[in-house]
Amino acid sequence: MEYNVNEGKSFLREVDGVSYGRIAVKTHVITNADKLEEVLAQYLKPVLHAGDTVFISEKVVACTQNRAIPMEDIRPTFLARLLCKFVYKNPYGIGLSIPETMQCALDECGIMRILFAAFVSVIGKILGKRGWFYKVAGDKARGIDGPCDCTLPPYNNYVVLTPEAPETVAKKCADFLGVPTAIVDANDLGVDILGYSTTALDAQGTSTKLLAPCLSRELIAEIIRDNPLGQSKQQTPFGIIRVGELSSED
Q: Is 234 exposed, middle or buried (0-12, 13-18, 19+ CB in 10 A)?
């Protein structure tokens, strides 16, 4: 079983005087042909320790939900082509700055919501504020990932949508793995915890608090602030936060 620390990332991260190990778990290239539970069973379940917390890339969840769309299958409307011209192009990702991703935002969030978000964004720019568009458009728009050269093939030619029901997915994963599980959107701009479950099912199928102490959403976000899973060829969509006697070979 291969799990490691990605190049350029440190195994340990200290937060408020406590050291946390971050193990990146390498997998095959996961597609809509894979079932998430089967992949978890193959790569995560054999290496988990009591007290671990699992974090899962939102992109791999979306892919297993068939929410990765080839660029050639997207037909941008005139409105999508118009609105994308006004989107801020940050150096870390495409966001909604191309017609295809903007069209996905319109489809996911609705035309009126995106138009209102665009209007609010203009007001924000006048006031020297950024980020108002996504505050109005919401997580479904914020989480849309466009293709880029650094993305692992075949997804370098796909638009990947935000996963459906991330809180529910996190709960099901926690039930299956027996440890707290978070679905995360992490990149060089920051970390969003899209779903997090600190409960699991006991042997009788009744929801119960896990025995291990649970990390808060805010603490998980801080622990993985530097995005230890990486973004491209690393093929590490799963991560484990481990506290205690730590080593990168744990």
A: middle
| Nearest-10 crossing angle of helices 99-109, 111-126 | 120
How is residue 188 annotated by DSSP?
Answer: T
User: 3-state DSSP call for residue 84?
Assistant: helix
Integer CA distances (angstroms), 19 to 11, 13, 46, 120, 222, in order: 10, 6, 24, 41, 12
Over its length of 250 residues, how does the chain's per-residue pLDDT go in tens digits? Answer: 445 777 778 889 999 999 999 999 999 999 999 999 999 999 999 999 988 999 999 999 999 999 999 999 999 999 999 999 887 766 666 789 899 999 999 999 999 999 999 999 889 888 988 888 888 999 899 889 888 777 777 888 999 999 999 999 999 999 999 999 999 998 767 789 999 987 655 444 554 444 455 789 999 999 999 889 866 667 889 999 998 656 555 5
How far is 247 from 38, CA to CA, in rounded Å? Answer: 27
Helix (H) or strand (E) holding 81: helix 78-83
C-alpha distances out from residue 7 to 25, 152, 226, Å: 13, 16, 12
**3-state SS record for 111-130:** HHHHHHHHHHHHHHHHCCCC
Reference 55, options 146, 174, 199; nearest CA is 174
Cβ proximity of 10 and 239 under 8 Å: no
Chain Cα centroid distance, residue 107: 20
CB 163 within 8 A of CB 67: yes
Positive/negative CA dihedral, 144, 198, 36, 225: positive
